[in-house]
Write a structure and sequence with these properties.
Blueprint (H helix, E strand, L loop, with lengths): L2 H63 L5 E4 L5 E6 L44 E2 L11 E5 L3 H6 L22 H7 L1 E13 L1 E7 L12 E9 L7 E9 L1 H4 L5 E7 L8 E2 L7 E2 L10 E2 L10 E8 L6 E5 L3 E6 L11 E11 L26 E9 L5 E2 L5 E4 L6 E7 L3 E7 L9
Antiparallel strand pairs: 1-2, 2-4, 3-12, 5-16, 5-19, 6-13, 6-17, 7-8, 7-16, 8-9, 9-10, 11-15, 13-14, 14-15, 17-18, 17-21, 20-21
């Protein structure tokens, strides 16, 4: 009779344990949930702090780039062109330019500038190219026009440090073609070139197109390169021409551009005026601004003249756009090899091929048509000249041509009385022979 109460007492103890276990489990679950929530909140907090830091860095960078203007002009294409006092431009952020006296004009122009008024074929395309922002105003004397950098421009870059910079290995090296590098590098070219002498400048007339770009991080350009040093990490380069680069500018407009580097694009140099270095002296042409009109396939052709030369007196490298606009100069101290002379000149086109989905990009070079289609259909460089040690412009000797994949983009050299030394170049990229 005494055993029954003990059994009931044991049962009551077991029943009492169940709520306690459940309470502990619920408490543990609550703690875990709270911990997970706290961890999630912590991750979001870290992400917000990083985003805030990047935003502050971008704002600081914009403040450095966008100097206080005396006036601003809104271009029809959406650009803002700031008219900045010439002495306030980004060039003078360079420590070696703090007390620099601006050279307002070159001491010497090259002798023997090609007189295009004597060219019979010039009648086929005498149209004038200008910049789109000119429709809404011009900058006053003693200022220079600078395309305003917007925060969206910087945010599109892989990093603030790399904004406005090319990638390493983007220069065509005709003497070394490693097929394996095509996939690693992604840059493809169709160029003419000279080497084996000392060069003090180069000139060309380039017709202007608006090639289509497949991927936002690809670009297409046509330019001349003034090169010194090896194709290693000591490469010096001065570049000028036109480009379409959605990643850099945020649209597909064709734009005038320049570039320079003294260490193969590693730390020095940039596009246009996006770093200190190039000193602009002209108040009418804006680096990086849209140019128009554009050549039409089978129709009107529009071209620009680009001349870069080394002033034999001061030693600076000057840039001229068209026949009338001397834009400014790169001080010779920016460079090592180019402080003396160039060892190679290149002219031609370049695209970035990111190989979307494992196939070749359909980003076009030039007009997007192959050289054999000829005038009004293919892109050209004509009246190609180099500047020699006597500051004379002359036709290049021993000109060669180079392309990594001629079935994607090609080049064909020529020479005649009207155009002097010239070549057609370009292509569509992806096609049945370039899969």
């Amino acid at each position: 009779m005494a055993a029954a109460p003990r059994a009931r007492s044991s049962s009551r103890r077991r029943l009492a344990v169940v709520p306690a276990v459940m309470a502990a489990a619920l408490l543990l679950l609550a703690c875990c949930a709270g911990g997970a929530a706290a961890a999630g909140s912590g991750r979001r907090g870290v992400a917000r702090r990083r985003q805030l830091l990047r935003h502050r860095q971008v704002q600081y960078h914009l403040k450095r780039l966008n100097k206080a203007p005396l006036a601003s002009i809104e271009s029809p294409d959406g650009d803002i062109i700031d008219c900045v006092p010439i002495s306030s431009q980004p060039a003078f952020d360079h420590p070696l330019l703090k007390n620099h006296t601006i050279q307002t004009r070159p001491a010497y122009h090259p002798e023997g500038l090609y007189d295009e008024s004597k060219v019979a074929s010039q009648k086929q395309h005498t149209q004038t190219i200008t910049q789109m922002w000119h429709q809404n105003g011009m900058c006053q004397e003693n200022t220079i026009p600078i395309r305003r950098t917007k925060k969206e421009d910087v945010f599109r870059a892989s990093s603030i440090k790399r904004y406005g910079k090319k990638t390493h290995l983007s220069i065509p090296n005709p003497s070394s073609v490693d097929p394996a590098m095509l996939n690693e590098n992604g840059h493809q070219h169709a160029i003419a070139y000279v080497e084996g002498d000392k060069y003090y400048g180069a000139k060309a007339t380039i017709n202007v197109w608006q090639p289509s770009i497949q991927q936002g991080n690809e670009f297409s350009l046509s330019q001349l390169w003034i090169l010194g040093g090896s194709f290693g990490q000591d490469l010096n380069s001065i570049e000028a021409g036109w480009q379409v680069s959605p990643d850099l500018y945020g649209d597909n407009n064709t734009r005038l551009f320049t570039y320079w580097t003294s260490d193969a694009y590693q730390a020095t140099g940039c596009y246009n005026l996006l770093c200190s270095g190039f000193i602009q002296t002209n108040n009418q042409i804006a680096m990086g601004a849209s140019i128009f009109p554009i050549s039409n396939y089978g129709g009107s052709q529009y071209d620009i003249n680009i001349l870069v030369w080394k002033d034999p007196k001061e030693g600076n490298w000057w840039l001229q756009f068209g026949n009338d606009y001397v834009l400014g100069y790169w001080p010779s101290f920016l460079f090592s090899y180019l402080a003396d002379s160039a060892s190679m000149i290149e002219w031609g086109g370049e695209v970035v091929n990111t190989e979307p989905d494992g196939s070749h990009t359909s980003t076009q070079m030039g007009s997007g048509h192959f050289p054999e289609e000829g005038f009004s259909k293919s892109s050209y460089f004509k009246n190609i000249q180099v500047v020699d040690s006597s500051n004379n412009l002359k036709a290049p000797r021993g000109i060669g041509s180079f392309t990594e994949q001629s079935n994607c983009y090609d080049v064909q050299n020529g020479n005649n009385g009207d155009w002097g030394t010239y070549f057609y170049y370009g292509g569509p990229g992806k096609n049945p022979n370039c899969p």
